[in-house]
Amino acid sequence: MKLYGIVGWKNAGKTGLMERLVSEICSRGYSVSTVKHAHHVFDVDQPGKDSYRHRQAGATEVLLASAKRFALMHELREASEPTLEDLLSRLSPVDLVLIEGYKRDTHHKIEAHRAETGNPLIATEDSTIRAVASDTDLTLDRPVFDLNDTARIADFILAEVGL
Question: Is 96 part of a structural domain of the chain?
Fold first, then answer.
């Protein structure tokens, strides 16, 4: 599977860019999966539901399945957070995996940047960031795309991964 990342500080436009890229790349006939890193506690389950009750009772994994989808919830309990490589090994094969976050990992990435956040560019200190998607003009040693020019950003990613 080919991998490409989207990184940036909070409110930089990462999730919107990811959403648009998934739609654009899928519309070109490629299969895409995503991985999203969260820095906070999250729960995809609902208190009171059977699957939630199974986890609360101590199950390490709960697989919730229907005719439309399935979700595997894995409780780490006291175990370490899995690496990106470990998580990727659980995915079914697709043409491209887009990764939101994991900015310290070594895969190639595009940085989403919004001037209004006032955050510094990550790209100036990170050679794994191959381009920047920004809402303002920037002069860098790598390509800079308009943050909303999804088609050109998709072209760049697909060329980078050889699709």
Answer: yes
